[in-house]
């Protein structure tokens, strides 16, 4: 009887050990599969991150060289969406910031540091051009000047205002008309005409919106002012 009982104990122990071994093998296989899945997923995530296109300041298409400031801007869309001006990844003016308005929107930036100095808009439909002229005259040498129209930026412009803007490097200001869309980046004390300017005429035959042309956008790299 004792021998039979011992034999049964041995069988029970053997079955237990066999069961434990089988379970451990299955668990190990599952662990290996899970680890393999985790490593594969990590490799795929790393590959996705490496192929994701880089983002440059203000969302421009390529990085600016050293000693240049990145900028991107857009005119207003009809009389619905205001203009947007971004410099060095800093949105200076936009409808979201609630600091844009009908007429000509202006942002001033320090030409040496890229720091924002001032933002203002001047109503060129129902307003007075005199405050705009005084503002233009007050801009200091070496200041970067960015301008964008919203709705109508030309009706109240006179020859004096146009001349002052032309001195900042604008070419198109002489022909800016009722409800034209226009964006411009120049500077006080500039010696040549600015390469940063876009202008679309208000033309009922080609307008994208009823009574207004399409939005104009522009991006680029502004050279830092050197001493």
UniProtKB/TrEMBL annotation:
The keyword Signal applies. The gene is FAM3C. It is found in: Secreted. GO terms for biological process: epidermal cell differentiation; ERK1 and ERK2 cascade; gene expression; inflammatory response; keratinocyte proliferation; neutrophil differentiation; phosphatidylinositol 3-kinase/protein kinase B signal transduction. One of its GO terms (molecular function) is carbohydrate binding. It holds the Pfam family ILEI. This is FAM3 metabolism regulating signaling molecule C. One of its GO terms (cellular component) is extracellular region. Residues 102-189 form the ILEI/PANDER domain. Belongs to the FAM3 family. Keywords: Disulfide bond, Lectin, Secreted, Signal. PANTHER family: UNCHARACTERIZED FAM3. It comes from the Eukaryota.
